[in-house]
Amino acid sequence: MLSLMGRIGARHSSSMLSVAGARLFSAATARAVANESAGVAAWTKPSAVFWVHRGYGGSRSWSTVAVGDNGDRNESRNRAENGGVSASDGNIKDEKAVVSYWGVPPSRITKEDGTEWKWTCFRPWETYKSDVTIDLKKHHAPTTWMDKLAFWTVKSLRWPTDIFFQTRYGCRAMMLETVAAVPGMVGGALLHCKSLRRFEHSGGWVKALLEEAENERMHLMTFMEVAKPKWYERALVMAVQGVFFNAYFLGYLISPKFAHRMVGYLEEEAIHSYTEFLKELDKGNIENVPAPAIAIDYWQLPADATLRDVVVVVRADEAHHRDVNHFASVRL
After folding, report:
1. How far is CA 319 from the centre of its chain?
2. Got the DSSP string for 67-136?
3. Domain boundary residue among 47, 81, 115?
4. What is the CATH number of the domain that holds 165?
C-alpha cells in the first residue's frame, strides 16, 4: 500500500511541477524536475539545477538556474570520457554559478573599440561630450529681496570655505561636489511627491533635477581619484552634508523659487572656483596629472586627456546647472 501511494504521489508531483514550472522556475528546470519519476528530490541532482534560498519562505523564496536539458547526457558523456568516473565522483569539478535571481545572465557591455565596459555606476549610453563653449560669465543680478537673500547666503558660505581650503583646489572641488549633489536629489524627490499628490505631470523637472544630482555625483567620483580625502575631511563632509541636506529640504518646502535661486548662485561660485583651479594648473602650482579613467569614459575625453581637461568639462557642467536652476527659479 505504501509503495502504491508513493508511485501515485510521484506521478501527481511530476504533473504539478510541469504546470507550475512556468511560474515558479525556468522551463528547463521544470522539465528536469518533472522527469524525476522515482521521487528523488531535485536538489540531489546538482547537474540539473541549482537552488538559491532567498530567506522569505514559500515558493517565491527560491530561485533556480537551469544548466540545460542535456544535463544527464553531459554527465553520461563525462563518465565515458573519464573512464567511468563522473565529474562529481572524481577530482574533476563541474562548477556552475548562479548569475542572477531569475537565472538570466547579464548582457556583456563593451566600448566602441570592443573592450569590456568596467563601470557599473554609469553605462556607455549615459556618457556625453560636455559643451565647453557655454558662457561662463553669465550672472543673474539679484533684484528682489529673495534674490538678494539667496545671493548673500551663498557668499557667506564661501568665506569659511576659502579659509579652510585656501589653494587646495582638489580637496575644495571634492568638498564642493558633496554639497552640490544634494539640491538636485532633494528637489527631484519633492517634485516627484508633488506630482503624485496632485495627479499631474512634472513638466520634465523631476528627471532634469535627478540627472543634475547624478552628474554632480560623477564629479565627486572623479575628484576622489585626484585628491584622496583625509579622515577629518570625511568627517567634515558628514557634518556639512547633514546640515545642508536638512536646511535645503526645509527651504525647498517653504519656497522652491528661493531654493533654486540659491543653487544658481552656488553654481556661479563653483565656476569661479574651477577657474581658479585652472589658473593654478597653468602656473604649474598643481601638477597636471593624467585624467582618471572614469573621467575619460564619462566625458568621452581622448585617451591622453589630463586633469586640466577634466576641470574644463566639469566647469562647463556647472555652467549648465547654473542656467537650469536660475530658469527653474522663474518657472517653478
Report:
1. 24
2. --TTHHHHHHHHHHHTTS--TTTSS--------STTS-PPPPPB-TTSPBP--SSS-GGG-----TTS-S
3. 81
4. 1.20.1260.140
Domain that holds residue 142: 126-331
Do 27 and 150 lie in one domain? The reply is no
DSSP bridge partners of 110: 116
3-state secondary structure of 154: helix
Decide if 112 is inside a domain: no
DSSP 182-251: HHHHHHHHHHHHHHHHHT---TTHHHHHHHHHHHHHHHHHHHTTTSPPPHHHHHHHHHHHHHHHHHHHHH
* Angle, in degrees to the nearest 10, between helices 169-198 and 205-223: 160
Interval 104-142: pLDDT, tens: 777 788 888 888 898 988 989 999 999 999 999 999 999
113 within a domain of the structure (yes/no): no
Together in a domain, 46 and 134: no
Q: Are residues 7 and 140 in the same domain?
A: no
Query: Could you tell me if 72 and 141 lie in one domain?
Result: no
Tabulate helix, strand, coil % of the chain (nearest 5).
60, 5, 35
Statement to judge: residues 139 and 208 lie in one domain:
yes
Tens digit of each residue's pLDDT (9 = 90 or more) over 35-69: 444 444 333 333 333 333 333 344 333 333 334 44
List pLDDT tens digits, range 263-305: 999 999 999 999 999 999 999 999 999 999 999 999 999 999 9
Backbone phi, psi, residue 290, to 5°: -60, 150
39 and 135 fall within a common domain = no
Among candidate residues 163, 189, 173, the one with its CA nearest the CA of residue 245: 189
